[in-house]
Design a protein that fits this description.
The structure holds 2 protein chains of 2 kinds.
Chain A (H helix, E strand, L loop, with lengths): L24 H6 L26 H27 L2 E4 L3 E4 L3 H7 L2 H32 L7 H9 L6 H11 L6 H8 L14 H26 L3 H9 L4 H29 L3 H5 L13 H11 L3 H32 L1
Antiparallel strand pairs in A: 1-2
Helix pairs in contact in A: 4-8, 4-10, 5-8, 8-10, 9-10, 10-13, 12-13
Chain B lengths: L1 H32 L4 H5 L14 H9 L2 H32 L5 H12 L7 H10 L7 H8 L2 H12 L3 H9 L4 H9 L4 H17 L2 H6 L8 H9 L7 H21 L1 H8 L7
Helix pairs in contact in B: 3-14, 4-7, 4-8, 4-11, 9-10, 11-15, 13-14, 14-15
Classes of the chains: A mainly alpha, B mainly alpha.
């Protein structure tokens, strides 16, 4: 999903670094096995039976991808290094600025503030979404549950709806007086919360909305993991007299840990691209700057103020920070996996 | 013992029903709100599930005062073209990397893998400059082309192609089939699951994309649903929230219906991110 749809959106964009995660959740959910094993060799063995191969064939197949990839990925990638050293006004003015953009970024309070808010969102999202998703998966995985397919289908629905549409619809649901959420909370005796205009609350509103969007989606990943754990392990643990918590700790958790680690990384990367929700739901990163994330600030500076050079420099700084965070996460999750 | 088991099942069902309510609540609220009058939407209280006086006025306004039908058509076109082009280009690339040996193959694979590690944010500014230079601003190709070369798509298709025995390809060659014919008629039908998954994945991504279309599209007539709902419908009349709800509903309904028809493919497509590398 990338314009690159998803690349810039808070979606769990495809991530190549996935540690061993299920080969196909679609199969797991339908309880059928489809062959996704790679029986093919690493390299194709030579032709058999004296068939002549066309030496140009691979280049023909690679051509469309190559041309588009060179033009719209590799070239812009190189160009963005150059662009980050220029001072620009839209696509017109363009003068050399050396490292000025990067130096300005180091002293840009809004940038660091946006980084802080983005990190807050990323951390809270992981802490709230993953346990919820795992709990849902454990419940739906329940053996004697009637209508489990129906629950899975329903919980998967929110991921289909674009964050823009969610933002538009939820603006009303989060209203102080008339909003459906506060009305429901009022029935439970909880006083009204200003979800969208209280600067101390808005980030949590985004976390809550993301929970609604992603809990069921992540649940599907966990379900695939749960279905991959051999039943014999549970039986053996039961024979050893392990109670429910001990079985969870010794069998379930190690079984789904690779998926949790993958979701953590994917979710963090997605969070750094968070734009649609704060732009639409909390009105362009408002109130004030209370929900201005990195992407909102980058869009403001680069495309509304027209300083593409500054936006390019910001893009590189975000990339470096993100790679560092991802590496750190990989190390930590690996270390935890070894302890289990 | 049996009683305890029944009770625990009941508790599980109760919790799941609560989550179902929380998940479906906004959808139901959206659906019912789109048939309500402005006065009823604004009235305090949780509101009725079935509108007091159901009206189609919101939908009428949506299609009469705004060219909403053409936004819909634009989105269908862009999402379909993106999905078809990306899938074809990815499948061809993945096939070349999986089934042929050629010089530079290792380097090509490494470069594609390497760029996937970079977040898209770094491309936003230079890509805009490029699209501007190529005179693709305010065109649908400015939306479609930048996403068409998906390194991710190449890598996931490559894995499926690897599973196909080379003997099958060679027997096609012995029968005198050309390389394209082998790819199109023998190999592609065998990897249909990954093709439909990739089609759905890219279609949905394009349908819901917002930031890039907002940057590239200028003329209101070219807008996609996402941009139209926030920039045109929402500013139509500050007071007509029912129209906004109707617009949102029309934008998400086709996706939800497609999902209900093709659940298995959707779930496979959207969880592609977890494919083993």
């Amino acid at each position: 999903m990338s314009h690159t749809p998803g690349r810039y959106e808070h979606t769990n964009s495809p991530d190549s670094r996935s540690p061993a995660a299920p080969a196909s959740c679609g199969d797991a959910i339908n309880g059928t096995a489809r062959s996704t094993k790679y029986s093919g060799g690493r390299h194709a063995p030579g032709p058999t039976g004296g068939v002549r191969r066309q030496p140009l064939a691979p280049w023909f197949f690679l051509l469309p991808f190559g041309v588009i990839f060179l033009t719209f990925t590799l070239y812009p990638l190189g160009y963005s290094v150059y662009l980050s050293t220029r001072q620009t006004v839209g696509t017109r003015v363009n003068v050399f600025a050396g490292a000025a953009n990067y130096l300005d970024l180091l002293h840009d309070d809004v940038f660091w503030g946006s980084l802080g808010r983005t990190v807050y969102f990323a951390v809270c999202s992981v802490l709230v979404q993953l346990p919820t998703a795992l709990a849902l998966a454990l419940l739906v995985h329940h053996r004697r549950l009637p209508g489990r397919m129906v629950f899975r289908t329903i919980f998967f629905l929110p991921i289909l709806v674009g964050p823009v549409f969610i933002g538009v619809a939820f603006r009303r649901i989060y209203g102080v007086q008339e909003g459906a959420l506060n009305q429901c909370l009022g029935l439970l005796g909880i006083p009204a919360i200003d979800w969208l205009r209280n600067p101390d609350v808005v980030l949590n509103t985004l976390v809550l909305t993301a929970l609604w969007m992603y809990a069921g989606f992540h649940m599907v990943y966990f379900l695939a993991g749960l279905q991959g754990i051999p039943v014999e392990l549970y039986e053996a643990a039961a024979i050893d007299g392990a109670n429910a918590w001990q079985r969870f700790r010794a069998v379930t958790l190690p079984g789904i840990w690779p998926i949790a680690a993958f979701l953590m990384t994917a979710s963090t990367i997605g969070s750094f691209g968070l734009f649609d929700l704060p732009w639409v739901l909390t009105d362009r990163g408002g109130p004030g700057r209370a929900s201005t994330t990195l992407m909102v600030y980058l869009y403001e500076r680069g495309f509304l103020a027209g300083d593409l050079g500054y936006a390019a420099a910001m893009g590189w700084l975000i990339t470096i920070l993100l790679l560092a965070v991802s590496l750190l996460q990989l190390r930590v999750t690996r270390a935890w996996a070894e302890e289990m | 013992m049996r009683l305890a088991k029944t009770l625990s099942t009941l508790c599980v069902v109760a919790v799941l029903l609560l989550v179902t309510f929380l998940t479906l609540g906004p959808f139901v609220w959206l659906l019912s709100g789109s048939f309500k009058t402005q006065a009823e939407i604004m009235s305090p209280g949780l509101g009725r599930l079935i509108p007091h006086a159901p009206t189609l006025a919101n939908y009428r306004t949506l299609f009469a005062r705004v060219p909403f039908a053409s936004y819909f058509v634009n989105t269908v076109f862009v999402a379909s073209a993106t999905a078809l082009l990306t899938t074809l280009v990815s499948a061809m690339g993945g096939y070349a990397l999986a089934k042929y040996d050629f010089r530079g193959k290792q380097i090509a694979t490494t470069v594609v893998l390497g760029t996937m590690l970079l977040p898209g944010v770094v491309l936003l500014a230079p890509l805009f400059q490029l699209v501007h230079t190529l005179h693709l601003i305010d065109t649908f190709w400015g939306l479609i082309l930048p996403t068409a070369a998906s390194g991710f798509g190449v890598l996931v298709t490559r894995q499926y192609f690897r599973a196909i025995p080379n003997a099958l390809l060679d027997s096609g060659r012995l029968d005198g089939a050309g390389e394209w014919r082998i790819f199109w008629s023998i190999v592609l039908p065998l990897v249909r699951p990954i093709l439909s998954a990739l089609l759905i994945f890219t279609f949905l991504g394009a349908w819901n994309s917002y930031l890039w279309p907002m940057i590239v599209l200028r003329d209101e007539r070219n807008f996609l649903l996402t941009v139209a709902v926030t920039n045109v419908v929402a500013s139509l009349h500050q007071q007509e929230y029912g129209v906004v709800l109707a617009g949102t509903l029309v934008s998400i309904a086709p996706i939800v219906m497609l999902f209900l028809a093709l659940q298995r493919e959707f779930i496979h497509g959207l969880t592609l991110g977890a494919v083993k590398q």
